[in-house]
Structure formats: C-alpha cells, structure tokens
Amino acid sequence: MNNYKIAAIPGDGIGVEVIAAGVEVLQALAAKCGTFGLEFAHFDWGSERYLREGQYIPEGGLASLKAFDAIFFGAVGSQEVPDHVSLWGLRLPICQGFDQYANVRPARVLPGVTSPLAKGKAIDWVIVRENSEGEYAGSGGRVHQGLPIEVATEVSTFTRVGVERIHRFAFELARTRPAKHLTLVTKSNAQRHGMVLWDEVFAEVAKDYPDVRTTRELVDAVTTTMVLKPEQLDVVVATNLHADILSDLAAALSGSLGIAPTANLNPSREFPSMFEPIHGSAFDITGKGVANPIATFWTAVMMLEHLGEAAAARELMAAIEAVTESGLHTPDLGGKATTREVTDAVLALIRR
Ligand code: ATP
Questions:
Q1: Measured torsion, CA atoms of residues 85, 78, 299, 27, in degrees rounded to the nearest 10
Q2: Based on CB atoms within 10 Å of each CB, which residue in 61, 112, 165, 323 is the most buried?
Q3: What DSSP state is assigned to residue 113?
C-alpha cells in the first residue's frame, strides 16, 4: 500500500481554514478507500512566523520539503507584510526552488453553480501557466531610490528551454482531452523579443503534435473570447503574468474564486509538486467560518491525480459536484452555508 507523505502549509488568512478542511476530507477519503495512506506534516510557515522570526521559511526548510510526495498549500498574504515580500518569502521560493514550471488551472462551471456568463455558455478550460520565468523571473532592480531620478526595471526573461518545456507540457495535456485544442496566448505584436521567441518555439513544438489543433490569440483578445465565446477554448498556454490574470477571470466566470484549484507541477518529479487553491488569504472573511473550501477540495483532487490515486480523485470530485449541485453554497456562491457545513456534506458523502 502506498503511504504518501504530504507537507501541509496553510499559510495565512483563510488558507488556515480551508487547508484544515482539506486535510480532514483527504484523511476520510484515505480511510474509506483503504488502498493508500496519507501522512500529513504541518508547517507553520506564514506571515505570523515572518513577523516573529524574520523568515517565512526557516534555514534548511526548503531542503526538508524535498522528502515529501506533495505539498498542500493554503495562501500567503498579510495586511502587515507587503505582498511582494510575502510572495517572494514563501510561495515563489517553493515554486522556483522545486522547478514547478507548469502551473495547471482547470476552470469549469460545477453543477449547481451559476456562471455570470450568458446561460448555456459552457466553460471547460485548462489554463497552463508558465511558472518559472517570464515576467516573474525576478530580474531587474532599483537605483537612486527616493530621488527624482529613481529608476526601476522589471525584466521579463524567456529562455528557449523554459518556453519549449511549457509548450510541450501544454501539447501533451491538450492531447489527452476530447477537443485536442490548444490556444497560444501571446502579445508578440507589441513585445517583439521574448514574446516572439514564445511564438516561434510554439510553432516548432506544434510540429510534433499534428493531432492537436492550435489557435493563437493576443492576450487582450482572449479575454473577450473567454467572455463571449467560451466554447472556443479548451487548453490555453500563457506566460506567467498573462495566465495569472486570465485564471482569475476564468475563476470568476466559473462562479467564484472560492472554487478554483491549481497545481504547481514539477513534471520530471525530481521535486515535490505543490497544490493550492487559486484564491489568496481573503482578509475580509478570515475567521468568519464562511470561506468556500471547494477550491481546496478540488485542489486535493488534483493532488490525488498527481499521486496516481485516480479512483480516489474521481470519488472526491463526485462528492464535490454532488454538494455543489445540492445548493449547499457558501456566501461567495450566493448561499448561506459555512465552511463547516460544506465540509461535513462532502465528508458524509465520502463516508457513505
Ligand atoms: P491575495 O492578495 O493574497 O491574493 P486577496 O485577499 O487580495 O488575496 P483573494 O483572497 O484572492 O484576494 O480573493 C479576493 C476576494 O474573493 C476575497 O476578498 C474574498 O471576498 C473572495 N474569496 C476568495 N477566496 C474565497 C473563498 N475560498 N471563499 C469565499 N470567498 C473567497
């Protein structure tokens, strides 16, 4: 029997609430299936720790994570720490340190959930986000700080290796889906270096996947396709920044940020991959017990798929869909249910 070691990093805000719910559901699922085990280790890496000790990740922390099969992450972000400090202090060192270059973000309108899109418009997308370089490469600097002549640069970095591997990943994924359709999102009309390499390498990789239909859209244009002709999209590959923005739009069009999951994958499996809800720490609802745990449960489904536990993943997804269909919704979906009630409903279906 496989016994998986999972590092749980709840982080900040509602991350703490939804990861607790996710761990509970995953443990119930493992107990019910009886075919695999899950052993969780909890890490207190969050903004409280940073404010107390000056570091999100303690010395040697990243190395200690290497021993795990997967990382189950909540959210990072605090009103007392600038966002760029918290992001670069916790989430990005894990993504970059473990070369989790493929960020996969499925978007679908779950049963019982109302999309703000016109009735009958179907959403069934997977956004593949380049997760290791591009606009978030961290390259740049500031000089003459505070002076009128201050200069700051933020340099997007595109490497042939980085671009090729994410396009190949997206083609492989597109190939597994019924529509076998991949949309390249770009901005090479205005950005004539990195984005042109992005397009050229896409065309080269496409030759190896004649069974996958491709289209190319500028990032501004694809937002209108998402809203007006959502059925024209299937798998979408976009840069770090573009996909970051598009996936929040995708989550909102699917009904709520509170249901959207994501996986930060190290496809070579040299390092553990990290699974997290798309949403952040949501200070406005922290501690109120109303955070939607569905994004985290769906995230858990992606983690189980990655671990090779396909049957358990299917069972959890079915339970999630049965609960959303039942109308038991948290306030972000227009309901009155609490995190506890939604969690209990999913647990009841699993234990049935
Ligand atoms: P960050 O800056 O860490 O990305 P944020 O607090 O600015 O996070 P998000 O957490 O991403 O923003 O979400 C924006 C809003 O969406 C929240 O303020 C909250 O109202 C709502 N929201 C996000 N996630 C959930 C959830 N799981 N359940 C209910 N509402 C949510």
A1: 120
A2: 323
A3: P
> Which of ligand 1's atoms lies nearest the C-alpha of 291?
28
How far apart are the C-alpha atoms of 87 and 170, rounded to whole Å?
Answer: 25
State the pTM of this model. 0.94
Q: Report CA torsion sign: 47, 52, 54, 56.
A: negative
Query: 274: which strand partners?
Result: 71, 264
- Tokens for 307, please give them: 């671990």
pLDDT (tens digit, 9 = 90+) per residue, 172-221? Answer: 999 999 999 999 999 999 999 999 999 999 999 999 999 999 999 999 99
Which residues neighbour 180 within 8 Å (Cβ) at sequence distance 6 or greater? 174, 211, 212, 213, 234
Q: How many residues does the chain have?
A: 352
In the three-class reduction of DSSP (H, G, I as helix; E, B as strand; rest coil), residue 336 is classed as: coil
Catalytic residue among 44, 83, 208, 220: 220
* Closest C-alpha residue for ligand 1 atom 31: 258
Q: Tokens in use for 234?
A: 């299937």
Report d(CA 79, CA 118) in Å as an integer.
Answer: 36
Give catalytic status of residue 248 as yes or no: yes
Q: Is 237 in the pocket of ligand 1 (CB under 6 A)?
A: no
pLDDT given for residue 120 in this prediction: 65
Establish whether residue 262 lines the binding site of ligand 1, counting it when its CB lies within 6 angstroms of any ligand atom. Answer: no
Query: Which is nearest to 70 in space by CA: 210, 266, 249?
Result: 266
